[in-house]
């Protein structure tokens, strides 16, 4: 009795259209340039050398103002959790730069 059930199923499958042909085309997109420039403050070279492989200047410039301890935590997280190849000797310079950049953007240059 099973062969009798299989025949209608086979006939039904044979009546189905085949899958439409798939054609691939080359495509390209042009990403916009990041026009942002990091402010020329102490530690800028350390940030460029250690951070810009993953973070664009405009991304860095748009970060919320946070205290030094939070920046230390964020840079540590980049190293430990995300395995960012950040030179440990450059971490103080990077944190100093991020804090100074926030102060500069806020117009507060009293913090070294």
From TrEMBL:
Keyword terms of this UniProt record: Signal
Keyword presence, Manganese: no
Keyword Signal on entry: yes
Coiled-coil positions: none
Molecular function via GO: electron transfer activity; heme binding
Leader sequence residues: 1-19
Superkingdom, natural source: Bacteria
Protein's UniProt name: Sulfite:cytochrome C oxidoreductase subunit b
Organism: Erythrobacter neustonensis
